[in-house]
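Hi support team,

I submitted a single chain yesterday and got back a structure, but I'm not sure I'm reading the token output correctly. Could someone confirm the output below corresponds to the sequence I sent? I've pasted both exactly as they appear in my results page.

Thanks,
R.
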Amino acid sequence: MEGSGDAMEGKSRGNGGIHILNMNDQSNANKRFGPGWLPSLKVGFMMTTALFLILLLPLQAARAAEVNRERIPLQPIIDNAAPGAVIQLQAGIYSGPAVIEKPLSLIGDAAVTIINEQDKAAIFIQADDVKLRGFTMEHHGGQPTAAVHITGSNNEISELTIHTEGAGLLLRDAASAVLRHNTIEWAGASTASSTQKGNGIDLLNSDNSRIEGNHIQGVLDGIYLENSRNARVQDNRLLRTRYGIHCMYIDGSSVLNNTGEENMTGGMIMGVKNTIVTGNTFRKQSTNVHSQGILLYDVHQSEITSNTVEGNRVGMNIAESSNNEIRDNDVTRNFVGIQMVLAEGNTFTQNRFVSNVIDASAMDSKANKMKGNYWDSFQGLDVNQDGMSELSYAINPFYEQLISRNAAYQLFFQSPGMVFLSDLHSEGKGSWTTDETPQIRIGEEHTGAAAADGHTRSGLVGLLGLLLVGLSAGTMIYMGVWRK
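Hi R., thanks for writing in. Yes, this is the structure output for that exact sequence:
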């Protein structure tokens, strides 16, 4: 029995490296430390923990007070300044919101941050001739509030870095504004819906404004203009928005040398006339079935020249638009190069269409003139060596109609069989979109990209041909030899 007791004691003392106190241990501990040693130990531990927490509370309160002291209220600084004053903000963290009701300049640098956590504009400019420059803004007020809201005229906002959970710069009835070299980024949740986001720069009824050199990403629309005429939108970069540039009713305006990537639509121009859209580059607008590089809707008597639309679902979408000049554009590697719907009397000249799945598409469109464009899918005949083909290029809609019925046929793009079937299809040729005198070659400044695309396409077609030949040979060997 004694041996059995020792075994029982051993089992109770150890189990997988964990020591378990048995009755003999408890008895020995009571003899050594007294019968109340365990409750006393628990009480001591609780008292020590409570004392530690009590000592920690003042430290936390002091830290909170320190943070609050670091945030300098901005409104009193503005209120104490005389009209026309130049306020040079010292390094630190300032708290909004603030209202500016007199002309002045508010200047800072990267060491100056204005934080606003209220559902109001961080800075609301109600006066004329106000300048903001150089500092960082963190606007945590949601849509529809903005980091900077402007209702005065002749104001200049430059070199700000804005992280916003609403809009960036919001102008209402604010004429002759200058908005330049600002960085505006969405700071809310990456899963936020479009209704939760504001626009990067948003103008309504604000004529004669200049929007130049801004970098905008992640917001709803990068730059939105409505009823704001004679605006100049130039050298801006727009990433991952719905519409990079969204313009409505901006007669007499210019959209120049802007760059957009990974937006749903690069530039949407709507309801305008006498407007210039020149030198813009819109790439990789393909995240949505309606994605396009440039969308012209209800646009008239305007110039669309020297733009690059590359890698989009639709390069240019021209809808219900008339009498526009569309010239010298690079339309490259889009699923559809140019798409026309109810477009009339537009002129297309000297454009370059390279490596598009469908060069051009037209629906219910008439009297559009195409002349002197380059189409890499066209093999013409230049008898007099003037660089123009004596044969016209009628764009065959067979492939477009085929894939509209079954998208899987996209796999056979430019395959020998598909080209053969397209050549057989000639029904309604008189109504096809036709370039009367297409270019045979393009200028040296464009030949590099075209050649690279041509080599890529030729390589893919050649590889596909080799695979088909190999498959055919294997089939014949199997059928003619193996079965014998």
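A quick pointer for reading it: The radius of gyration is 35 Å. Let us know if anything else looks off.

Best,
Support desk
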